[in-house]
Write a structure and sequence with these properties.
The chain has a domain of 188 residues. 47% of the residues lie in helices and 6% in strands. It has 18 helices and eight strands. It has a four-stranded mixed sheet, sandwiched between helices. A hairpin with a 2-residue loop joins strand 4 and strand 5. The protein is globular. It holds the Pfam family Sulfotransfer_2.
């Protein structure tokens, strides 16, 4: 009887150990080489790990965390500390990548050279940006929605902007209208998550935009719960602790202008039906609107910037649904007070920041960040865009986006908030 019990106990212990090994192997190898390593035309479905069920009780989870952390440490190719100075950025080749996408050609690129040696002291700049963020996250007198919640309190669907690259130990939180298309391209190249005729893309600019924004292309935190069940949060925390985490931000008001230009000044069928039609009805008193954006533009029916601002300030908007990601606040997309980011880039210094980040990640030999658009929305345009917006609306809009201004060190636009 005793031998039988010992045998059953041994089988159980060995089974648990093997399951843990499968989890770690799938996380480090399967995720990078199987789930993501697939052509766009035939995406893999994301299933749970074989042998693991979402409701299974694993008992002493702290011990499991420690065990997983050790195994992850032994397998992950560690990145150097983000605050430590690394060697000078290697001089890149002078040849320009081939731009194969029509939209990229139309927009145009800024191919002017930027000398990294003459840029701001990037290390000190990062220290200052992180200090500002952490000080205001810890300042009890500065409050905004969701600030006080813990990482465990964040719903999974709010973690879908965190893209993971297990091959290089990188987590990127993407913010729409802040060079996110090109940063997603970089993540695709690094993770080898998209194939072109059976071969992973090597040049970010070769990746078509429609493939870049397809959700099946990227491994995000939001997908963890379907694959790892009860282990989801624990693996997220381990990766957040060990991987290099970065995001790029932008002056909040300029980002709004850019979103408006992109989604309402250009013919966009989806945004016309989902947002423009309700705005035109609510704020411009239009009825019997065309069903297609081309007909509406042909008839001169376009959402005005004033309509857009009214929509953002209207309390009914958030009651119907959360802000669209293109104008949702960064603190709601990336949770900077719950996630300790190692690198904070800004669109205003994109070229220098991108070059420095790729250097720190030790991937600057593999690729270079695509060049900026020549027609990027400029901060100097704010006065003109907001000239016809009533002062009270501007002040309300600032309060709506104040956390993004303060956390990321953007000065309060006093000229727009006073008579």
């Amino acid at each position: 009887m005793t031998k039988a019990r010992l045998l059953r106990l041994s089988v159980v212990l060995v089974s648990i150990f093997m399951i843990l090994l499968i989890i770690v192997y799938w996380d480090n190898v399967g995720t990078a080489h199987f789930y993501l390593h697939t052509s766009f035309s035939r995406p893999h479905s994301s299933g749970a790990i074989p042998g693991v069920t979402a409701g299974e009780d694993w008992g002493a989870l702290p011990d499991v965390d420690e065990f997983l952390a050790k195994l992850l440490s032994s397998n992950l190719k560690q990145n150097s500390s983000i605050s430590r100075k690394t060697e000078q950025l290697l001089v890149q080749g002078s040849s320009k990548p081939v731009v194969s996408n029509l939209e990229e050609n139309v927009r145009g690129y800024d191919w002017s050279t930027h000398n990294a040696r003459n840029s701001l002291d990037q290390e000190k700049l990062q220290i200052e940006r992180q200090r500002t963020l952490r000080e205001f996250c810890a300042n009890s007198s500065f409050t905004f929605p969701t600030k006080e919640r813990s990482f465990d309190d964040i719903p999974n669907y709010e973690l879908n902007h965190l893209i993971v690259d297990d091959r290089h130990g990188i987590i990127y939180c993407y913010v729409p209208k802040v060079a996110c298309t090109n940063w997603k391209r970089v993540m695709i190249v690094l993770s080898e998550s998209l194939l072109d005729q059976g071969v992973p893309y090597r040049n970010p600019l070769d990746i078509p935009r429609e493939h870049v924004h397809n959700t099946s292309t990227h491994l995000t935190f939001n997908k963890f719960w379907r694959r790892y069940g009860k282990f989801s949060r624990h693996l997220m925390k381990i990766k957040l602790k060990k991987y290099t985490k970065f995001l790029f931000v932008r002056d909040p008001f300029v980002r709004l202008i850019s979103a408006f230009r992109s989604k309402f000044e250009l013919e966009n069928e989806e945004f016309y039906r989902r947002f423009a039609i309700p705005m035109l009805k609510l704020y411009s008193n239009h009825t019997n609107l065309p069903t297609s954006v081309s007909e509406a533009f042909g008839a001169g029916l376009k959402v005005s910037f004033s309509d857009f601002i009214q929509y953002l300030l209207d309390p009914r908007t958030e009651k119907m649904a959360p802000f669209n990601e293109h104008w949702r606040q960064v603190y709601r997309l990336c949770h900077p007070c719950q996630i300790d980011y190692d690198f904070i880039g800004k669109l205003e210094t994109l070229d220098e920041d991108a070059a420095y980040l790729l250097q720190l990640l030790k991937v600057d030999r593999l690729l270079r960040f695509p060049p900026s658009y020549r027609n990027r929305t400029a901060s100097s345009w704010e006065d003109d865009w907001f000239a016809k917006i009533p002062l009270a609306w501007r002040q309300q809009l600032y309060k709506l986006y104040e956390a993004d201004f303060v956390l990321f060190g953007y000065p309060k636009p006093e000229n727009l908030l006073k008579d």
